[in-house]
Amino acid sequence: MFPEIDSKTLKKWMKNRDVLLVDVREPSEFESERIEGALLIPLSLVSYECLPLEGKTKIVFQCRSGKRSQLACSKVQDDIDDKFELYSLAGGILAWREAGFSVLSGPEKEKLLDKICSIKNLKSLFASTAHQACFIGGALLLFCIFLSAFASPHFAWGFLLVAIGLIVSAFKKS
Description:
Shape: elongated
Number of domains: 2
CATH topology of the largest domain: Oxidized Rhodanese, domain 1
Largest sheet: 5 strands, parallel
Number of strands: 5
Helix content: 40-55%
């Protein structure tokens, strides 16, 4: 079990702006009620890559009652650097309200995708998929070259150059 903090401690940390509060509930729950300043990343999408950690040292996961936030901690624990501290909000948003702190309700003005991951982090999530696509595309082009060798050898050179470029780009670091 990961360390838990109470609502009063979280409120103090949020006032000092040295904490990233991540709400791991579903979008409909988040829209219904949320802690001001919380970032929505549903539990199914929680990953280290999606956490905008610039200038933060503490990460607090929050849900309705505290169970999903513990699961979120376990999902990122292996990828997180030692300089970050992981916590779960004890009792979740229920304990937050019980402590007398306010919650917001209604739809967010910002788009959900912008709240889930920044564009920079989305690019890193799809990098391996792009490399796979380049490799597959290159392999298909090589196959086409083999077939075109029997039809017209003049087309093979164009296919060959594109295929080599795709295969090389698949193995280059971005």
